[in-house]
Amino acid sequence: MASVISVLLVDDDPALLRALVRCLRGDEIDVLTANGTDEAIALLRRRPTDVLISDIDMPGRSGLELLDVVRQEHPTVIRMLITGAATTDRALAAINEGEVARFFVKPFAPRMLRETILSFRDRIDRVRRETLERMERARIDALRSWAERTFPGTTEIARDRDGTMRVDRAAFDVVFRGRR
Asked: What's the Cα-to-Cα distance from 113 to each of 15, 48, 60, 69, 100, rounded to whole Å?
């Protein structure tokens, strides 16, 4: 079974949020909502999200400002915009500055939004795999660093002429069995 895509919808229009949630929610998509930029930023800091879809024009900080924060703090999040007042200049600015993957002009077909989100599934799965691999490498590096600081020389691997690894038995016993 394919993984569930986490989507955060950001808009100051509660009716639009409810309509989009009804269209998107299901086995393949988990939908979160925020009524504005500050709420969205707080939510993103608490919960991993794959896709952010934000209105541009909102009271307080705009959707473009939100995209800037998300691009800096959560660069792997796929960013999309929706607006009721599209101009070519705004669309180009959003795409170039916020690195927006898609730009939707109201009114739009919610089904098209759902299909667009699902079209990013392979990219999302790849990002998740790469993130897990980075985390695993970081844990291994931290363990090696600790072992080297605690027991100098234990992270060095010696090999015979034929390439077989040799283990310093005394160092192995100290590190892995706690014997001295």
From this structure: 17, 20, 26, 23, 14
